Amino acid sequence: MDVLEAIMTRRMVGKVRPERPKREEIETLLQAAVRAPNHRLTEPWRFVVIAGPALEELGEVFARILQMVKPDATEEELQRERTKPKRAPVIIAVACLKGRDPIETHENIVATAAAIQNILLAAHGMGLGAYLRTGDTAYHPLLLRWLGVPEDAQFMGLIYLGYPAPDAPPRHTPRRPIEEVTQWRGWAD
Question: Which one, of 105, 89, 58, lies nearest residue 163 by Cα?
């Protein structure tokens, strides 16, 4: 798939089949991720690939976090948290290490966001469905501890991955026209 075509046709795919992509496919996505631009070459991204029984463990972490932030959570709410990771057979959790100063921290976050976009585009190009998720529980220190990344790292998101389900609805989110979000300065036609 041509790069521009991948950019223009990429969509979040929230419904995937249960069979797990091959490890080589996930490794290809991670190789694409680490090719993201990174100003000071700090390589701040950290990835944790979660599959199999670890998805259930992650669900328990989500439920514990919900109990901590909402002590009156119902069993139904807790069960909903437990099942969230089972939406896909693989999740790549992404975190970003802080920099030595505010500018480097900002640059690290930008680089890690670019790495996420590389994963999403590569997944689309490879015929995989991907969905970037966050949510309130995703920013809790308990999640970072469970992932094994420094607690002062910036959590960036969970990328749910799998093969698109045949009945996965296409998610086309309309975008504002570029004329509404762009200024042209010094451009002569």
Answer: 89
Between CA 45 and CA 37 the distance in angstroms is 11
Q: How far apart are CA 99 and CA 47, in angstroms?
A: 17
Res 10: pLDDT: 84
What is the number of alpha carbons within 13 Å of residue 153 lying toward its C-beta? 24
For residue range 91-148, list pLDDT tens digits in order: 999 999 999 999 999 999 999 999 999 999 999 999 999 999 998 778 889 999 999 9
- Beta strand pairing status for 129-133 and 45-51? unpaired
CA-to-CA distance for 86 and 65, rounded, in angstroms?
17
44 close to 96: Cβ distance less than 8 angstroms: yes
